[in-house]
Amino acid sequence: MTRHPRERPTLSRRRFLERSGALLAGLWGGSLLLGSCGGDGGRSRSGGGPAVRSRPDRPVTLPLVDDPVPDGREPEDGPLSVFNYAEYINPRVLRTFERRYGTRVKVTTFNSMDEARAKLDAGVGDFDVFFPTPDVLGRLVAKGLLAPLNQTYLPNLRNVWDTLADPFYDRGSRYTVPYTVYTTGIGYRTDAVDRRPEEYDNPYDIFWDRVHRGRTWLLDDDREVIGMALLRRGVTDCNTEDPDLIAEALRELRALDEAVSARLSASAYEKLPSGEAHVHQAWSGDAVNARQYLPRGTDITDIGYWYPPEGGGVIGSDTIAVVRGAAHPVLAHHFLNFLLDEQVALENYRWLGYQPPQKAIDPDRLVADGFVPEHLRSAVVRPEDFDRGCQLLQLSPEGEKLWDAAFARFRSGG
To answer: Is 208 within a domain?
Structure first.
């Protein structure tokens, strides 16, 4: 098997960057105070207003921090500066864009969203395009770090699922367009486990099964790990800030660690193929992409993935935005539109393994078309899955400290 172009293990898209309350306060200060959840759709020229928290039942129209770039302008010469997770876009796609626009694309990478937003806030780097997650979007806009979009330059936005073309976290797609969608489930070695997740009374119990001691891995991400412990207990609010529920989740995770000596990583796509992990909390895209890392003699059917067939597990999406003050704002818009092109999205998907929410990509055809192996059908994401799934969204500053402190105690064994 030819090795995937991602030659080295990459860190988590959402990897936990341990931080104290003092660091959070230093980075974000008073601008984190929460405003109206509905948003007022107004304008704040300087940014720095209150950050709003969105929920599916409380959609947000983010305030404009500036006027969008005017209509009718030609793309700048470039180079285009892109700020993205490491290895989170097909290099061939970038080369195609460079040829089409006669420019160069410079990619600067980050390992966590905390690292990325701190650099943006500090003015480190002159970036045109950024790949934020919805849980930080309200804060980025409140800090005046993103530029409003001019949808005249984004005709391909009509290609994406309606639920994400006008998402609850950014009504009217004022600042973002969707990039990929994914679920969080259970990756496992079909040839190494005695029981598959669905054979347990509670599928999440596989993480607590002593049979897999030393071979059980969780995502190195506070929201994902604590969220999984909450779901196991039947708590469907993965954004709860109830101290009692978080404390109970921590007790469950301590019992897990005592039973299986769990380890943390963001590399399920490597840990499972190598056999280092028999069970690994995983993103759907990494389960699909695991076939690129299989050692010789190992078959993709040795890799399994479970996500609740009725829905209700963790589900998420990543987005693309233009940085406020970008040197090449029109070229940046063209780049966003380029990534929303159906054929470009397909080419990116073949390499990346993370599904683009394109209307023309029939989820039921992804197996037949060879994008997803038959036995990994549960890794396919459908628009209706967002109606049933739990999205990890922005917490209040107090809630974020609560989750961070619990995960830090879990990691330290305290």
So the answer is: yes
